[in-house]
Amino acid sequence: MLNRLSELMLKFHRGALSPEEQDELDQWQAVTPRNRQLFRELTEENLLRPQLEEMESFAEMPVREKVEARMPDVFGIRTGQETFTALSGQEAVTVQSAEEPAISLRRRWPRIAAAAGILVLAGIGAWWFQQTRQRPAIVIQAKADIPAPTGSRTTLTLGNGRQIILDSVGAGTLIREGGAMVAKQDSAGLSYKAVADRSVADKGVTDKSVTKEGVAGNNTAMIVLYNTLTTARGGQTQVKLADGSRVWLNTASSLKFPTIFTGADRVVDLEGEAYFEIAPHPNRPFIVRVNGSRVEVIGTHFNIMAYTDEEEQQTTLLEGAVKVSKGSASRILQPGQQAVLDNVKSTLSINKEVDAEEVLAWKNGLFEFNSLDIRAVLRQVSRWYNVKVVFAGLPPSGHFSGVVSRTSNVSDVLRIFEQANIRYTISGNQITILP
Q1: DSSP letter at 414?
Q2: Is 267 helix (H, G, I), strand (E, B) or coil?
Q3: Is the pTM value of this prediction over 0.70?
Q4: Facing residues of 164 across strands?
Q5: Distance between CA atoms of 150 and 399, rounded to whole angstroms?
Q6: What domains lie within the chain, and their CATH numbers?
Q7: Smallest Cα–Cα separation from 429: which of 254, 252, 234, 250?
Q8: Of these four, 41, 98, 113, 353, which has the most CB atoms within 10 Å of its CB?
Q9: Percentage of the chain modeled with pLDDT above 70
């Protein structure tokens, strides 16, 4: 490690670090406060000034020999003119005698970069021996990373409480459940198809009046069974309901729904985020219950984002019309509008300037950040990569924008912070934002 650290510091003084080497040096600094202090001592001109001026005064050979004698071979350096040539890439610097006119340190700085290099090596050597006496050496490692999640990471919970891990089963019919055939459709997720047949009565149906669209008559007597789809952090899936409606479920979300719809309304319960394409059924509104609010539609396309760790619940309409209600307050949306429910103030408002591509980026396999603060960005990162985010100090200010594939490693997503000089470390499933 000693030789590697010396090499990095010398390249730093020459301005010859590659981006990868700069990352390596940054990671070493982040390990301990002592490492950061040593870096300052070996790079800041005002801290090096006294030692550099003292070195320039060493004009006599016996003194220089004493300096060289204090540098052990373990540093991997040479002595005399070879040392200065190796460090500066040019002939050895001529040391000014006491009789020569004084030159400001700022003007002399390029000429004494080699001397700074010697001090760098000496400082690193002192640090190294102190570290090896007190504790095992700290090894510089390549920056850790977290790959994008794979699989749907989805669980189907049946009406009797039985659970099916969808990644563990192949395509095809899974089960008959509450008047519907449930099938897995590979990448298309699940589909429910109504079965109007007495042979499924033991699964919940007690009447044959179920339409092929999976909507029973108002007077149909049957036991309604509810299924729940749940995506883990890093998971995503979709389902075609028995009425023909389609739902895309984002990560860390759940959707509870009946296997077939009965009564006057089609009602589902959502936690997290989902995009809906609702099959139209006259006089049979589709209702989404979420966090104490209701979204009522006839036939339409819309997205609901209702994570409990977000400050707002957002319902965005793309086609048709929806009514959003919370308590006594209600709003009717037109296409291109967004209902915003403040989770703190419990106020309901309309946003008429909506970027639909940003809202649906998750459904299209993307992260799309549009002037978000760092906390908002990292909440999305945390949910998708299933990581814990820790701020070592106050959260950095500023807003960030960018588009990144959700199949990328987490480091590719975090590159949007680079221009703001925000540093981070990854350890296991934790991302720490450094002060």
Answers
A1: H
A2: strand
A3: no
A4: 156
A5: 29
A6: 2-134 (no CATH), 154-359 (2.60.120.1440), 366-433 (3.55.50.30)
A7: 234
A8: 113
A9: 68
